[in-house]
Amino acid sequence: MQYGIQLYSIRDDMQKDMKGSLQKIAALGYKMVEFAGFFDHSAQEVAAMLNENGLTVSGTHTVLNAITRDFDGTVAYHKAIGNRNIIIPGHDLSTKEKIDEFISLVNEYQPKLEAEGITLGFHNHSGEFKPNADGSVSYDEIVSRTKLALEIDTFWAYAAGKDPIALMEALKSRVHFIHIKDGLQNGEGFPLGMGTAPVKAVYEKAVALGIPMVVESETQNPDGFTEAKICIAYLKSLES
Q: How many angstroms separate the CA atoms of 142 and 121, rounded?
């Protein structure tokens, strides 16, 4: 099995030393990385770091405003680093009006990105599953009114009271990646195997459906690399 990691998991180290951080991630056994910022490095620099460490880009977390503000530059950068998946990490979807505006924009830019060979996706937190004050439920609207690929964050779905395994099954034709992560129902995160989220069942479902898994462990306690090591060791323990 090959596993990816969302580099927000080691965000402090990435900001200080991207090259060294990617070396350490590769040494832990991760094969794919999902970026959450490039910290002023050129695309050529990033591509060289990835190549040196035998890493591929599974995707990037890129805000919608970056796409609408500089479409050509964003596309060129992602092509240069070998990325074919731009994932919107979140957005203000707190009212029906804001949901409508978001959907209008992604429905405009999704086919433009597709024409460039790039898939546009969406990553959830817990709030998208809960009704807004006006009764709108943003995740339902996104699923029904867009063609966005879905990166299900299985922990945040769990924290929202959803069954992430059932969600993966229901949306399997749209799910390009999952975030596999752990924590408590109240939203407090932990490395894999240390919380109450149904991580083992999520893992088994991802394997059955052939969905690539991207680790995220955000608390950096005591540091991101320690959590990243715990997570990949746990995943490898499930392989047997």
A: 11
Rounded to two decimals, the pTM is: 0.97
Distance of alpha carbon 18 from alpha carbon 20, whole angstroms: 6
Residue type, 195: G
Residue in the structure block whose two tokens are 């690399």: 225
Contact 178, 201 (CB under 8 A): no
Handedness of CA 74, 84, 228, 172 (dihedral sign): positive
Q: What is the DSSP string of 200-233?
A: HHHHHHHHHHT--EEE---S-SS-HHHHHHHHHH
- Report the SS3 class of residue 46: helix
Q: pLDDT by residue (tens digit) across 98-129?
A: 999 999 999 999 999 999 999 999 999 999 99
Q: How far is CA 227 from CA 1, 58, 60, 77, 215, in A?
A: 19, 20, 21, 29, 10
Q: 240 burial class (0-12, 13-18, 19+ CB within 10 angstroms)?
A: exposed
Classify 181 as helix, strand or coil: coil
Q: What angle do CA 136, 158, 180 make, to 5 degrees?
A: 120
Q: Could you state, in order of their start, the residue ranges of all structural domains in the chain?
A: 65-70+88-117+125-180+199-209
Q: How many residues does the chain have?
A: 240
Q: Is the peptide bond before 222 cis (omega within 30 degrees of 0)?
A: yes
Secondary structure letter of residue 103 according to DSSP: H
